[in-house]
Amino acid sequence: MKKYLYLVCLTFILSAVSCKQKSNQEKIETAKTVEPVEKWTPIFNGKDLNDWIVKIKGHPAGVNYKNTFITEDGCIKVNYDEYNDTFNASFGHIYYNKPFSNYKLRLQYRFTGKQLSDGPSWAIANSGVMIHCEDPKKIGVDQNFPVSVEVQLLGGLSSEERPTGNLCTPGTHVVLDNKIATDHCFESSSKTYHGDQWVKLEIEVRNDSIIKHFINGEEVIQYCKPQYGGEVDFNKEHWKSFEGKPLKAGYISLQSESHPVEFKDIEILEL
């Protein structure tokens, strides 16, 4: 009888240990398969521009000339209602008030309305998101564009292909296809998006290493090693002294280039 009870107890103990080991193993396997939740943070609250700095050519930082940038319907809108159809080369940018280095940025954009009559022909349905920008408070009053890397946004114009999510390099160079890319703009592999449809943009920025552009979830261009270099039409001697140095961080800005455009759902994930 004692022997029988001993065997029953031993069987119970071994069974309990086995169940515990199985439970622990299941926990380990579950932990391996569950992806960490990404914590995206809105950098536009959908209501006002309190966290943003406007800089428009011909005016000091902080002056929102003719209400170029407004908030409406949960969007930041590039608005030319007060321009009387005259752009006068008033290239502008609106900067988030904090620089970043390693991050993912995502937003949606769309082109609306018509370009101002004296806007340059290349600026029709043309805007951009500038990354690794110089400090907006230090930009020259008559400066057209910040030294930065531009994620160029283009809308379709006709039946011809016009990709978006392209790369442009105002005052900078990058390494593309294993060599220094010194041209100003480079086309992505994206589709053409016509009309006023919303397009999803995501940018992955890894300091002065790899940068990727995504359009509607698809990677369309990748490059690396952003650095100072190239032609600038302002403070030439100053920027010449930086040539070849890595560009590791900077501000994020949205462009106004004479065609109305809207941005919404602007979020960042710091890496």
Automatic annotation (TrEMBL):
GO terms for molecular function: hydrolase activity. Signal peptide: none annotated. Residues 39-268 form the 3-keto-alpha-glucoside-1,2-lyase/3-keto-2-hydroxy-glucal hydratase domain. InterPro entries: AL/BT2_dom. This is DUF1080 domain-containing protein. It comes from Flavivirga eckloniae.
